[in-house]
Amino acid sequence: MAKKSPAHDPVQDAPHVTPPKHSAAGLPAIGHTVKVAGQQMGVRRATLTLLKVNQKDGFDCPGCAWPEGDKRHVAEFCENGAKAVAEEATLRRVTPDFFAAHPVSDLARRSGYWLGQQGRITQPMYLAEGADHYEAVPWERAFSIVADELTALDSPDEAVFYTSGRTSNEAAFLYQLFARELGTNNLPDCSNMCHESSGSALTETLGVGKGSVLLDDLYKTDLIIVAGQNPGTNHPRMLSALEKAKQAGAKIVTVNPLPEAGLERFRNPQTAAGLAGTGTVLNDLFLQIRLGGDQALFRALGRLMLETGDRALDRDFIAEHTHGFAEYEAAALATDWDEVERATGLRRADIEKLLALVLDAKSVVVCWAMGLTQHKHAVPTIREVVNFLLLGGNIGRPGAGVCPVRGHSNVQGDRTMGIFERPPAAFLDALEKEFGFAPPREHGLDVVRAIRALRDGTAKVFFAMGGNFVSASPDTDVTEAAMRKARLTVHVSTKLNRSHTVTGARALILPTLGRTEKDRQAGGPQFVTVEDSMGMVHASRGGLDPASPHLLSEPAIVVRLARAVLGDRSVVPWADFERDYDTIRDRISRVVPGFDDFNAKVRRPGGFTLPHAPRDSRSFPTATGKANFTAAAVEYPHVPEGRLLLQTLRSHDQYNTTIYGLDDRYRGIKNGRRVVLLHPEDAAANGLADGDYADLVSEWKDGTERRADGFRVVHYPTPRGCAAAYYPETNVLVPLDHTADTSNTPASKSVVIRLERTSEQAPGARPAPTVR
Ligand SMILES: Nc1nc2c(c(=O)[nH]1)N[C@H]1C(S)=C(S)[C@@H](COP(=O)(O)OP(=O)(O)OC[C@H]3O[C@@H](n4cnc5c(=O)[nH]c(N)nc54)[C@H](O)[C@@H]3O)O[C@H]1N2
Ligand SMILES: Nc1nc2c(c(=O)[nH]1)N[C@H]1C(S)=C(S)[C@@H](COP(=O)(O)OP(=O)(O)OC[C@H]3O[C@@H](n4cnc5c(=O)[nH]c(N)nc54)[C@H](O)[C@@H]3O)O[C@H]1N2
Ligand SMILES: [Mo]
């Protein structure tokens, strides 16, 4: 059997397993913070840098998109934010000498972990056709290489411009402006793999594809439902907010196949009581749902509320502000309890406990993340969350609303700035009016479609503003083959990753400044801006000297790229934008709604909040002018006999494809990532015991199979039939065509697999002699 899944860890991957933890943070979190940050950047630099994280005069944490409150702590960051900062502010460097010593063929055999550990890239690097070594090139030459390849295309639609979610508002605005002046809407982004399903569902039902709650709403609400999210690892500062909500009287319900430690008990590292004591129990009710069962759960809850009648329903709100209630009501009342049990694994009595909490609550917030968005029926699932909230009038009043918790620190802002392959006409009209060129109107390629276009040869140049496209995308083997067919691949990056090693015929790495670094231009010191998960926009100023004198900021890279590619054809005064970012913000203020007076407003400490019609005035800019109930048929994954459903998720020691370490502390896993979490009876049914090794084989409906080899079996409290393993090692198993309806997001939380026992670990998972 060909064992071709890439990027095995040549480092020792020998998992050691202990029982999962029941609480998160506390002293161990501080210990890990200091250790990780100190290793990468020394204790003094670590301390000075970390004290600037998320302060009003500091920089926005490059970790997650959770908002900061108005009253900031001295240490307004978390263990995982500190790891993200340390990764960027590291003192290790990847210089031209490094590339001379390591041919691409060598780098392609290294793990993502090893690549990331090498440090910050210091100079623009070029891989010529047929060459095996990247060589340093001057910036001007790098831009002329891109210009040559773009100019040689038959159509601008043969180029793809990807964005990851750390890019600032200013850089994102310029980047989409460049792509559109060039003539394409091919602007896929990490959102396509992330919260696209939320955007699709919310735009259709509420008219705005963003969350409707502010931080304060969490402190005013009576009930918070956290579904499909693991904040203890991925949004640790959210736990402080949940603790505060709890102290103000809120109840918390979590809906998850896994009992995630952070939601059980939280020991706040910012308070003495949290450090010393046993912490706060956050969870009032844990519904251990089967993968993909959430739509059925919320539909069933809707049925119970309808049957309860007036006590559960806000009839005035429904009559005045919603559309489609009768159809929804008929569908919900027809809910079949046997089907609900099959889909959710929950009994009616469990759902009635949730109903009781809902009936006691005057206001409800629902938070969610990838557990809801990465399923085939993710969009109808999130619409069902909206149905539930509409029944109780829980949109557009204090303490109530939808709270999709975003991932990357500026992923929401990038979309606001026009990074979108399907831009609304009004946005393009505003762009046309401001700049005087006609932007393309045809929709562009999202992530999955871009991979197909590269595979089929209809896209030839791939340009990435950040991210690690090859490792983050589904169907790794297909994606890598597609990438290798490109004429040119270009990555604007801070650190080395696998996407630099799986390249087109020619490749460029353009090294850039990170959030933590000072950005000086001809017009003086500059700052950038970001938008958090709750629509708050604020400034971000780095304080460290750049990792290398050769780095350019992301806005500067786009400006120089545009000048090299478009030259005299351009009607945009590109050079001004590089000198002084205020000139970019002036343009944004005239193109993007909610940004008027941008330069003044963003200079106020703490920034400003973007308008949100449903939240602010209960007005709904939808097709019907009302909030829409929807009544789609209930769906859930059907898994053939003897097969399991696999979710691919994050460990505590990673930031997406950036691996910080090999532990997943809260889940009790140490020193290894090739593990598969299984219900003990599922393991036994496959002839496997805890500690055995198995290959994971994904079975797709077209008969194709995909394999990831050598995973250690871990007995885990997950529902029967539901397995879990880490991303990105398992991306090789996610079929490219397995996506969510409407949003086209890879369904990476529901992959049908079978287990094949192996007598040994995968070659890469064995302790290997590594040259370092
Ligand atoms: N430290 C750290 N922080 C991060 C990231 C990181 O990698 N590391 N990534 C950032 C990004 S880009 C994002 S998008 C977010 C991701 O944040 P999360 O969405 O929390 O990330 P995942 O690890 O994918 O966790 C998915 C959670 O949903 C649950 N789940 C899976 N399937 C289902 C389901 O069908 N139903 C329900 N109810 N639950 C389900 C899983 O058990 C798990 O608890 O975090 C951001 N923050
Ligand atoms: N199977 C599976 N696949 C998934 C997911 C899953 O849950 N399961 N989650 C999906 C999700 S939610 C997301 S968001 C995507 C993430 O997809 P991406 O955003 O593409 O991936 P990241 O790993 O976040 O990108 C890390 C790289 O970004 C670069 N970088 C870091 N900081 C900066 C910066 O300031 N500027 C620039 N230019 N570059 C920088 C570094 O070179 C680093 O190696 O993955 C998706 N893929
Ligand atoms: Mo994400």
List keywords for this structure.
single chain, 772 residues, alpha/beta, Barwin-like endoglucanases, Rossmann fold, six-stranded mixed barrel, 32 helices, 33 strands, globular, disordered N terminus, binds ligand MGD, binds molybdenum atom, 4Fe-4S, formate dehydrogenase (NAD+) activity
The second-level CATH architecture of the largest domain is: 3-Layer(aba) Sandwich
Q: End-to-end span in angstroms?
A: 30 Å
The fraction of residues in strands falls at: 15-25%
Radius of gyration (CA) equals 25 Å
CATH C-level category of the largest domain: Alpha Beta
What CATH calls the topology of the largest domain is: Rossmann fold
Regarding quaternary structure, what we see is single chain
* Number of separate strands: 33
Q: What is the overall number of helices?
A: 32
Strand order of the largest sheet: 6-5-18-17-16-7
What number of domains? 4
Largest sheet: 6 strands, mixed
Structural class assignment: alpha/beta
Bound molecules: ligand MGD, molybdenum atom
Residue ranges: pLDDT <50 for 5 or more in a row? 1-11, 764-772
Q: What's the rounded overall pLDDT mean?
A: 93
